[in-house]
Amino acid sequence: MQNDNIIYDDSKAGLTAFYNKIYAIMGMGVLVSALVSWVMISFFSNTLISIIQTGGFAFFLLWLIPMFLVFPMQGAAMKNSPMALPLFIGFAGFFGFLVSFTLLMYKAENIAIAFVTAAGMFVALSAYGRVTKRNLSGMGKAMMAALIGVIIASLVNYFVGSPAIMYLISFISVIIFSGLIAWDNQKIEQVYNSVNGQVQDGWAISMALSLYLDFINLFLSLLRIFGMGSRD
């Protein structure tokens, strides 16, 4: 049985519907980000270049804004607020704006290869997270701890400017976000079962946000690897 706010079904069909809803919301976020990035690069590339050239440390701080936006979004989702979905779409749009600065530095073929690779990895890792009988919570917590280390290392490297360190960070990030994709997919079923299938829309939006961030960061990490030495 399903209505606008709650999915209730203790069968596999109900769980599948919950997964599909999460993937649909996540896909919507990726599409919004892609469209915003395309508009910025197609029509405002000179503005982007100007911001990069004159932004300095303020430009770096722009990338920290999403970290602070995540918390009110998660809060709205947990309260099943009607603002949760608009906040998620707005977040995806802003992230698309930020990503456009990165995409501007790479060739179209590198972007396409990185995206297709990230999409393929996401599908495979999502499937693994859904079917494995192994408890991935320990791995997931380790990946989250490693992510904090990567964020700190990235901040330090912003001032150091070492391509070798960035390359290493990118490889480590691929491993981290691959693990998080599998873990987050397993958590979806755990949450569903913990409430006997009574899951509100807020849960779907919250989990879609996690998968969205996993995918986008996996894509960006792969892009840095594939695009190393072949930037425009």
Rg, alpha carbons: 18 Å
Count structural domains.
1
Number of strands: 2
Strand order of the largest sheet: 1-2
Poorly predicted regions: none
Structural class: mainly alpha
Q: Mean pLDDT score, rounded?
A: 88
Helix content: over 70%
Portion of residues in beta strands equals under 5%
Topology, please?
Elements: E1 6-7, H1 12-43, H2 45-55, H3 57-62, H4 65-78, H5 84-103, H6 108-131, H7 137-160, H8 163-194, E2 199-200, H9 201-227
Antiparallel strand pairs: 1-2
Helix pairs in contact: 1-5, 1-9, 4-5, 4-9, 5-9, 6-8, 6-9, 7-8, 8-9
Structural commentary:
33% of the residues are buried. The protein contains 9 helices and 2 strands; from the N terminus they run E-H-H-H-H-H-H-H-H-E-H. Strands 1-2 form a two-stranded antiparallel ribbon. The longest helix is centred in the first third of the chain and has 32 residues, at 12-43. It has 232 residues and is mainly alpha-helical. The N and C termini lie far apart (53 Å). It has one domain (9-227). Helix content is 82%, strand content 2%.
Summarize the structure.
The protein is mostly helical and 232 residues long.
Which terms would index this structure?
two-stranded antiparallel ribbon; globular; 232 residues; 82% helix; mainly alpha
